[in-house]
Amino acid sequence: MIFDVLTLFPAMFSGPMTESILKRAQQAGLMTLRLHNIRDWATDRHRTADDAPYGGGAGMVMKAVPTAAAIRAVLALEPEAPPAPVILLSPDGTPFTQALAHELALQPRLILLCGHYEGLDERVRETLVTQEMSIGDYVLTGGELAAMVLIDAVARLRPGVIDAESISEESHSDGLLEYPHYTRPALWEDHPVPPVLLSGHHGAVARWRRKERLRRTLARRPDLLPRAYATGQLSRDDLNFLAELGWVP
Ligand code: ADE
């Protein structure tokens, strides 16, 4: 999978994109990250990529001409393929979720445009941006950190990047939070590991884990349960257990 990132600050990507799992994924050819500096498409002597807003007001606006030229040049990098989605990272976008990460992971290529300053000239948004995504209801200094969050969440879902089993029961995979994890020693200070995990009984372990996922979701994110119910993720046993805990659909 190819991630083409359009940014005014490509250096921000070293570190998060060059360590650990994403580093290995790139070395293994499972993902390619291409960073493009929008300033390279500015034609004036000072390579200006931003300007004051028409109508006045605070802050600067990313200019249409270099930004559009950058997007078009990057779209043209894969002339044989259908045009890749152009996703603007902005606090006004669709909230990014695990379900969206799964959808995006099906794409062969994503073009991510990192917004900066007060925003982007609206005409670029209207003509070249195909989707807008927000990573949460708060405002970052720019779209770079959001783009890295999106890349991380999407890339780990691609086959081979991480163990497929880790994905199937993790938080948000099927609308529930994850069960708690333990490793050696079996007794740490005065805290023992739940005995069922030492029993060697796979069925009992699986049932305990399922209940812990339900218990934890109800305690921490009860807002997730109606959706899990509506999408058929909850079995009869799940519903009976939730009813014991006081939750009914
Ligand atoms: N740029 C600034 N804030 C953002 C957010 N919350 N999500 C995505 N991009 C952003």
UniProtKB/TrEMBL annotation:
GO terms for cellular component: cytosol. It catalyses: guanosine(37) in tRNA + S-adenosyl-L-methionine = N(1)-methylguanosine(37) in tRNA + S-adenosyl-L-homocysteine + H(+). Keywords: Cytoplasm, Methyltransferase, S-adenosyl-L-methionine, Transferase, tRNA processing. Residues 1-226 form the tRNA methyltransferase TRMD/TRM10-type domain. GO terms for biological process: tRNA N1-guanine methylation. It is found in: Cytoplasm. S-adenosyl-L-methionine binds at G115, I135, G136, D137, Y138, V139, L140. One of its GO terms (molecular function) is tRNA (guanine(37)-N1)-methyltransferase activity. Gene3D superfamilies: 3.40.1280.10, tRNA(m1g37)methyltransferase, domain 2. Its EC number is 2.1.1.228. Its main location: cytoplasm. Homodimer. Specifically methylates guanosine-37 in various tRNAs. Belongs to the RNA methyltransferase TrmD family. This is tRNA (guanine-N(1)-)-methyltransferase.
